Amino acid sequence: MLLQRIITALVLLFAFVAITIFLSAFQFSVLLALLVLIAAWEWAGFIGLTGVSGKLPYLATLAAMELGIFFLLGINPEALSLDELRVSMLLILGLIFWVLSLFMLVGFPDNKSLWNDESKIAVMGIFALLPTWVGLLTLKYLDPTGHYLLALVILVAAVDVGAYFVGVNFGSKKLAPNLSPKKSWEGVWGGLAVCMLVGVGFIWGLHTYVEPLTIFQIGLLLLLMILLCFFSVIGDLVESMLKRNQGIKDSGAILPGHGGMLDRIDGLMAATPAFVLTLMLVLNM
After folding, report:
1. 170 neighbors 183 (Cβ within 8 angstroms)
2. Is 203 helix (H, G, I), strand (E, B) or coil?
3. Residues sharing a CB contact under 8 Å with residue 274, sequence separation 6 or more, in sequence order
4. Nearest one of 49, 32, 65 to 248, comparing CA atoms
5. C-alpha distances in Å from residue 264, one per residue of 6, 13, 41, 232, 261
6. Which of 133, 207, 238, 278 has the CA that lies 20 to 30 A from 271?
């Protein structure tokens, strides 16, 4: 199983780097839209939908909304940038959703009656998936070489790695025993520490190779590392909550040794709106 997980992780890494660097922004947007539909298929399982006939209408709804966003943001083969105001509005909706999700986590399982409904979980999927898609393709348009995208993925991975190794070796204070018994507060602090270290490298690269940063901009980016860790943990716990609600172990089985796509991108989904909004603010100062 460990070997299988390592092989799958390496394949995913090389594939992601390749499509991030070598695809045009429009090609990346289209491919990412298709991947979001795979994630939507898995989210339909959180809703309680089963089979093709049960899940297909939800996928069709997400696909129609993606198509609308293509027109809303002006995504086409000739476009060199996106409408930043409209992008920001969509990202803010995603950010609000993840902030509100914290209250669901704090009250779980006593508050299940407030959100455990097919229509509500379906809407949650829209606010989780579409802003992630918009945020990632915005990073590609901001930097067609893909460096911003890779930075976000590496920073979220740093949180996961730090949380895992510190949690396994030093974890004692449970973070959310009702949701994920293995997660600890020590793991959270470990994830934050590693993210901050990697984040300092990202800030240095941005300052050295993109544009000189002011002290205020650097302060915002350091704050972003804290927010990124915070939202990454929230995304992980929200997915655990929805899986526990349906009594399933993994969101899917598309990734050998890893489960489903949502099992790999839960933290990334929650971290993307805050990361992209803050980066856009810093770059426009």
Report:
1. no
2. helix
3. 95, 98, 224, 227, 228, 231
4. 49
5. 13, 12, 15, 11, 5
6. 207
Bridge partners, residue 259, by sequence: 255
Reduced to 3 states (helix: H, G, I; strand: E, B; else coil), residue 153 is: helix
Q: What is the pLDDT of residues 156-187, one digit of tens each?
A: 989 988 988 898 888 788 888 888 888 889 99
Q: Which amino acid is at 61?
A: T
Burial 189-212 (b: 16+ CB within 10 A, else e): bbbbbbbbebbeebbeebeeeeee
Q: Which two tokens stand for residue 103?
A: 């209250």
CB neighbours of 58 closer than 8 A, spacing ≥ 6? 40, 43, 44, 47, 49, 122, 125
Across the range 190-214, mean pLDDT stands at 92
> Is the pLDDT at 1 greater than 60, yes or no?
no
**Cα distance between residue 146 and residue 25, in whole Å:** 9
List the structure tokens of 186. 């020590």
Task: Say if pTM beats, i.e. exceeds, 0.90.
Answer: yes
